[in-house]
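Can anyone check this?
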Amino acid sequence: MNEIRPPARALPTDLAERLRAALPEGTVLTADTDREAYLLEERSLYRGQAPIVLRPRSTEEVATAVRLCAEAGVPVVPQGGNTGLVGGTVTAAHEVLLSLGRMNGIEEVDPVNFTMTVEAGCVLASIQEAAERAGRLFPLSLGAQGSAQIGGNLASNAGGINVLRYGNARDLVLGLEVVLADGRVWNGLRALHKDNTGYALKHLFVGSEGTLGIITRAVLKLFPRLTDRTVAFCALRDPADALTLLSLARDRAGEAVTAFELMSELSVEIVARHAGGQDPMQERHPWYALIELAGSGHDGSLRPVLEGILEEAFERGTLADAVVAESGAQYAALWRLREGIPEAQKKEGGSIKHDVSVPVSRVPAFLRRAGEAAAEALPGVRVCAFGHLGDGNIHYNLTQPIGMEKAAFMAEWEQMNAIVHDIVVELGGSISAEHGIGLLKAGELRRYKDPVEMDLMRRMRDALDPARLLNPGKMLG
């Protein structure tokens, strides 16, 4: 576990009291036991050190806290559900952590306008459930949705399994309310599907990871509820066959293709070993894919479409085997083979992780080149690759060789990152597809990003936060 860099300066001794005087009782936490849960990081790569944790209940309280900290020259680090994987909410000892978890209200569901207005601390699963009760769908779906908060999802431009059909978090928001670095509040909380009155400022803050402003409320897009779902688990020889199957599925089913997940042999094997999953195939195969078709206003009509796609793929020699879910229980069991991978990895040993994307057509080339390069650099390394083939996002994780000490393997992190990320960039890809930059990838961003683009990003941050008081050290460093 790494400690954050030494503090550049100490907090003013009276800051906690000034915050307590301006905010309701219970908002300001300073005791070690009260702060502990906010300082732990998901992967245990870092440990935060903020001596003050704030838990506001309203936008006004966020604005007050930010203003007081700005007047004292104290940086503020916003935190949602603390499920991030790149150290985006890790704090130094001279910083204040601001948790949005108590701002968790659903303010309005408008099924006619297909919108929902929520506070930033609302848990993603709660938003999905509220949409369902209103006969609508909020399609953002990811493994941590039971604890991840929508403010963090938007700040990191989260992806998940449905990007193929519905897009990233950026595509699912109509309006935002944001507290700026000086404590002012920008009210862009508009539920308009069309608004062409100047710059689309919301897009500055989505994906900014709290470095330009703190998202406090959002208007989200809703969609028709899906009434027909069918899923197939497919065995394949290689990623090129998976790409052929994806193209066939999209040609035959169009927008009904909601998800297309690719999984390596090892990823399915470890779920069966550690996470209660069961491979439905009689034989093991090098690669697998999970295809889901879903639609609104259908009544079982998509299953024949999926079966037709599979039959055509068999005739072409693309598929080695396939299983279509026959019941709700089997549907859940097949999805468990994909969703259980991250947890199973923790039990399999050390894992060097890469959240990358390349153009969909180049995924097979990336997997081949990265696999060859990783094996040459570290013989015996095991590739646990899985992810969203439909949008080109692969979680390319390397598992420690059998018999190698975990500490020795994890010491290879930087070398393996450079190998994998160099290939990604050569193929026109991104070193972070959906997890963000945070603290973990700030140095690599400077290495790989176009210098003109980096300059524009710095100018944008300097304009909105010239003193670098919002989440300093993250993204741009």
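Reply from J.R.: I decoded it. The two ends are 20 Å apart (CA to CA).
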